[in-house]
Amino acid sequence: MATVLTIVPSTAWAGSFRIYDHSASATGQASAFTAQADDASAGYYNPAGMTQLRGVQFSAGTTLIGGGFSFQNAAGTQANGDLRGSVALPPPSNLYLTANLKDLGIGSSDSTTVGLAVFSPFGTLTRWSDSSPFATATTKAAFELIDIRPSIAFRPLPDLAIGLGADIYTFSGSFGEGQVERQFRWPGGLGIPAGTGMELNGRDTAAGFNASLLYTPLRNEDGLPLVNIGLIYRSQATLHLDGQLLAGGTHVADARTTFVVPQVFTGGIAMWPVRDKDQEWKLELDVDYTGWKSVRNLDTTLSNGLTIATPANWASGYTVMIGTEYKWLKPEPLPDWDVALRAGYWHSQKAIPDQTFNPAIPDGDNHAISTGVGFMCREKGRFLGIIPCGGSDKALSPKGFGVDLAYQAILYEARTIAGNLNPTVNGTYRSTLHVGSLNLRVNF
Fold first, then answer.
1. Which of 126, 3, 8 is nearest to 422 (CA)?
2. Domain residue ranges of the chain, discontinuous segments joined by +
3. pLDDT digits 0-9 by tens, 242-266
């Protein structure tokens, strides 16, 4: 029978670390994009929305995340943390490709679109001082998961679209550490000197699925949506993280833990009070539910027969997102361009209880304020003043070039931890993050 190791309390692999920002067009609206989903990033936000896209559309972008964390306990001892630098490197990035099958010459109906999306749905990268009061809980942590999502969307009815896709979760050295990793200082025991630098790591690949819909109950005279209702469900997936326990860089034992990627439900409604040939104004409300309750424990089993018992008991929670976009279509100063201004706000609930909180993820209730701009060049315009934006009738020739920019401030409410399984973790945590997003788009 395996021995339960309790000398290392609160050994968490990760925490409430969902990434909501997967394109600058959505980030500028605090990710309230589920019901709009009208560019290639629909591959993440709502694959059913891909049916709104014609031709072939490509988008690639990145998200720069900066900021930091602070801690102070009842004795007045302080510590500061960051993202292993002024910004998290490599930054979470995204890539989208969609293709309408009729526009590719496949079939006679324009109601079917396929897509491929690659993005980072969950992730963290944190660093605290090796001399912090809670160094036996964590000093560094990384969990940079990527999702490869092929999907297909079709319209069984003129005003109803359905999307289906697979989610392949994995790790890659091109997108971070290439594994789950947590470093900490050994408290002593089992023949390992106290203060020794320890590391737990692991990696795996797992699969889940997603299903989505987009319903348009009201359109304008040009057939464009005035009201959209969007829904997407993302299933659970189980990662069996196989790796090692290292002491001072020396292999101690093989290690395995299990992390359940939570199921997620997101629903949204978008309305266009103004939508004509000159201007478009959208308002959207999204509600997102993340089923963190699936993370009950993060016990680590070692090949030497020991088990590091790690209760988690996370709680599911909601995020409410409100976003708006005002777009000028071919304004007089820029007749070959569309120009968009965006803004948004979200409130998100914490998932990790005080008892099992770990500074690897300083989780807490948070608020985000976002703003952004977008530019799409078409027809006779020139992108960057050099590249012709369109005007060619040739198949798969560019019909438009776009750039989207966004800034977001994520403000965490101060959180005081008491009664933690590792008493050194008890204290008050404050966190502020700054997010900058950039996406480049090409429509063919």
1. 8
2. 3-443
3. 999 999 999 999 999 999 999 999 9
What does each C-alpha distance from 167 to 145, 164, 239, 330 come to in angstroms?
Answer: 12, 10, 13, 38
CB count in 10 Å sphere of residue 178? 15
Going by pLDDT thresholds of 50, 70 and 90, the confidence category of residue 277 is: very high
Q: What's the CA gap between 206 and 210, in Å, rounded? A: 14
- Please calculate the CA angle 313-318-323 and round it to the nearest 5 degrees: 150
Of 17 and 264, more confident: 264
Instruction: Determine the straight-line distance between the first and last CA of the chain, rounded to whole angstroms.
Output: 61
394, two tokens:
């040739």
Phi first, then psi: what are they for 420, rounded to 5°?
-70, 150
Rounded to the nearest integer, the mean pLDDT of the chain is 92
Q: What is the DSSP string of 292-343?
A: GGG--B--EEETTSEEE--B-----EEEEEEEEEEEEES-TT-TTEEEEEEE
Cα–Cα dist 295/155, whole Å: 36
Instruction: Dig out the tokens for 123 from the structure.
Output: 């992730």
Question: Would you state the structure tokens that stand for residue 399, as one six-digit string?
Answer: 């019909």
Q: What share of the chain is helix, strand, coil (3-state, %, to 5)?
A: 5, 55, 40
Query: Which residues touch 55 (CB under 8 Å, ≥6 apart)?
Result: 99, 100, 103, 399, 443, 444
- Selecting from 3.40.1160.10, 3.30.360.10, 3.60.21.10, 2.40.160.60, what CATH number does the domain 3-443 have? 2.40.160.60
Between 6-15, 174-183, 387-396, 429-438, the lowest mean confidence (pLDDT) is in: 6-15
Is the CA virtual torsion 346, 342, 56, 223 positive or negative?
Answer: positive
Mean pLDDT value across residues 72-83: 95
pLDDT-based confidence at 308, cuts 50/70/90? confident
How confident is the model over 226-239, as pLDDT tens digits?
A: 999 999 999 999 99
Cis geometry, peptide bond prior to residue 423 (ω within 30 degrees of 0): no
The bridge status of strand 180-185 relative to strand 140-144 is antiparallel
User: Is the CB of residue 212 less than 8 Å from the CB of residue 48?
Assistant: yes
In whole angstroms, what separates CA 380 from the centre of its chain?
36
Bridge-based pairing of strands 160-170 and 206-219 is: antiparallel
Tell me if 437 sits within 8 A of 416, measured CB to CB.
no
* pLDDT level of residue 5 (50, 70, 90 thresholds): very low
d(CA 25, CA 57): 15
Q: By percentage, how much of the chain surpasses pLDDT 70?
A: 96
